[in-house]
Amino acid sequence: MAKRNALVIVANRLPVDQITAEDGTQSWQRSPGGLVTALEPVVAKHGGTWVGWAGSTGMAPAPFTLDNLSLHPVPLTAQDITEYYEGFSNGTLWPLYHDAAATPKYHRRWWDRYVEVNHRFAQAAADVAAEGAVVWVQDYQLQLVPAILRKRRPDLRIGFFLHIPFPPVELFSQLPSRTQLLEGLLGADLLGFQHPDGAHNFLRLANYLCGYETDRTGVIVDDRRVRAEAFPISIDFAQIDKLAQDPNVLARAAQIREELGNPRQVILGVDRLDYIKGIEKRLKAFRELLDDGDISVGDTVLVQVATPSRERVEHYQELREEIEREVGRINGEFSELGTPAVHYLRQSYDIAELAALYRAADVMLVTPLRDGMNLVAKEYVSARPDLGGTLVLSEFTGASSELTGAFLVNPYDIDGMKRIIIQALRTDPTEGKARMSAMRERVAHHDVTMWAAEFLTALHEQTRPPEPLPGPLVPLASAQDVWVVCDYDGTLSPFVDDPTRALPAPGAYSALMELASLPHTQVALATGRPAAVVRGLLGLTPDDPVSVLGMHGFEIDASLGEPLSLTDEQQKLREQVRAHTITTLEDLGVPFVQRPLEEKDGAVVYVEDKPNSVAVHVRRLDPAQRENVLMAISNGPALHEGLAVTPGDMVLEMAVTQVSKGDAMNLLRKNAPDAHFLVLGDDVTDIDAFATLQSEDVAVIVDRRLPDMLTAARRGTLRPAVAERLTPLAIAHLSAAVTVPDPAAAVALLKRFASARAQELEK
Ligand code: ADP
Ligand code: G6P
């Protein structure tokens, strides 16, 4: 019996293909494509078994280990390859899922074989998965595996990730086997897509074609909830970044430019030879630029690297011919002796050679007609620690949502693409660096390790047996009307040094959405920040049914009441306080910024200018300096008459209005006098909200700050500004509150409450 593992990856291909040379000797070669690029480092890090096809026909090699990867080959016959791989996977699904970039073909026997091979992969996964293991199924070739596997092994936690786009209803509905495919996917606990559009399309289809109840992030299938969300994939940024600084790679990059005849500018394309990559459109634009005289041979050269792919599929054969004809035509028309206009390399290179090519290229052309993500674009920016080079990127790639420093193009618009290529070639170096730096930052912070961790954490969370709901929340689950009111910083989002990066704890958005989609259940956020900022951090759209009360209730959602505004006097006072704060900091000699903090800022104070207040953030300072600054502000600008001064966690806020989260709560109660309230908070300003609670309401305290304050209050060691807020009612509610250790636990509690309430409401 095969060794059983706690993590099993199931993909059509193993990360390596078995190659048989003419003399019969066999060797292993890395498999092509983005799936392998992304997943290989994940399995190398976590350990686990990879189940997949070894790339040759007939008998599969015995399970084996290679570079720490435990590999479990699945056999495919020649007929499987024709009908399952080249047929249904790459002749039907691949074009259909890519906006029907080529005409999808439908053959019943292709589908029958797809079903059969999916059973084989599912059985292989069932054989190697340990009890309760995580099985992570990959991509469009194996969409039936989750349901087959669930039937055979209900103990498993099953995740599925689609590396390519998931099409809209109009296209997907063409498939004769459409409901079987959806039911196959719904066997998973968690479905990951490259882009929120894919998740959205899937959820619409599950409802429209299968009749399942869906909400924004999931589908209810019998007694299970299947979660469907976007998890944009990435690459090993650090590996490529490091490689691109290796002296050998740099020397090779210089050599490449020399071999190209030292042109002034090098344009590069690197793709699998696939019709979705838009290679022919890019060649057309390049030819016309030469023809128009906008660029000239010798001065500007195009290098197009294209790995052979799926060569027995008709569309791919046609594409290859078309591209080779076009390259021949360009070179025939424009090349000079010894100076070709296009260098066309139909080969596969190792990552070091690709890194050298990336470093040698001034402009990278990534122009797919549709692509789930496109890792080449991410590799290019990772390979530019020098901040050189510009990226021209199709707006129809998943990467375009993240790489906002790229020059975006519509590959169908040849004139537009020509204009953008010229713009990219002529980019001012300072602008180019800023663009590259923004893109690198994104990929560095969202690398493949983070992608895998987010997916696997979500899968664990999704499959964890539910803990019982804490006692005080039980009656609220069945109450007639409920308002859930949450603070943001420290409650739904862990504190970070830079407030502009205070991202929500994973699942916060979906927890709020789950609650808000229940009947008789309303959700509000009561925050000290401007509402728009918290909306942005959480990714709330104006259509999401969540109210946000900003600046402690100064900013009110239109649905809840009349907006508040400052009097002339209050505006003047705010100006005075701001000016006084700045002179105080200047006198102290403490550096400060008046715009949102950036990573490069060192130990500075952030003076935040809010519509009704001035907030002084001291989190970046060392502890001794923090106290000094807070003391000087408290004894200076904070003493202006008419201010409401609130000390928060490493911030002091001086508001010219007296609005508090207590007012925000009263406003909500006015709108729903019979509702019961569940209020979550962690900090001083939340005390005002807790103080308005009534006996059926419940307070949830996140973290230790408020409990520690209660202790300090009992000892009489609390600062007066805080002690004043601790009215007997606030103390009573805080003492009876449910406590959770951190924002992640707060999110988990909200989810538990949402599912308990959903069950109660169904009764
Ligand atoms: P896809 O998954 O459709 O192939 P991606 O751009 O997401 O497209 O991923 C392609 C992967 O294959 C990248 O890691 C890229 O480096 C690699 N690749 C593409 N062309 C070549 C080539 N000629 N030689 C070696 N690797 C290549
Ligand atoms: C894309 C697909 C992968 C596939 C790869 C290479 O990245 O999403 O599933 O493995 O292309 O294609 P191939 O058909 O050679 O496996």
Short description:
By secondary structure, the protein is α/β, with parallel strands linked by helices.
List segments where confidence is low: pLDDT < 50 over at least 5 consecutive residues: none
Q: Helical amount among residues, as a percent range?
A: 40-55%
What CATH first level of the largest domain would be assigned? Answer: Alpha Beta
Return the CATH topology of the largest domain: Rossmann fold
Ligands bound to this protein structure: adenosine-5'-diphosphate, 6-O-phosphono-alpha-D-glucopyranose
How is the main sheet built?
A: 10 strands, mixed
Structural class by sheet pairing and helices: alpha/beta
Fourth CATH level, the homologous superfamily of the largest domain: Glycogen Phosphorylase B
- Main sheet: strand order: 5-6-4-1-7-8-9-12-11-10
Task: Provide a descriptive summary of the structure in words.
The protein has 763 residues and is an alpha/beta fold. It has four domains: 226 residues, Glycogen Phosphorylase B (Rossmann fold, 3-Layer(aba) Sandwich), CATH 3.40.50.2000; 210 residues, Glycogen Phosphorylase B (Rossmann fold, 3-Layer(aba) Sandwich); 204 residues, HAD superfamily/HAD-like (Rossmann fold, 3-Layer(aba) Sandwich); 88 residues. 42% of the residues lie in helices and 19% in strands. It is built from 27 helices and 29 strands. It has a ten-stranded mixed beta sheet with strand order 5-6-4-1-7-8-9-12-11-10, sandwiched between helices. A six-stranded parallel beta sheet has the order 15-14-13-16-17-18, sandwiched between helices. Strand 19, helix 18 and strand 20 form a beta-alpha-beta unit. Helix 23 crosses helix 26. It is globular. The structure holds adenosine-5'-diphosphate and 6-O-phosphono-alpha-D-glucopyranose (G6P). Adenosine-5'-diphosphate (ADP) binds next to helix 1, strand 13, strand 14 and helix 13. The site of 6-O-phosphono-alpha-D-glucopyranose has 11 residues, from strand 1 and helix 1.
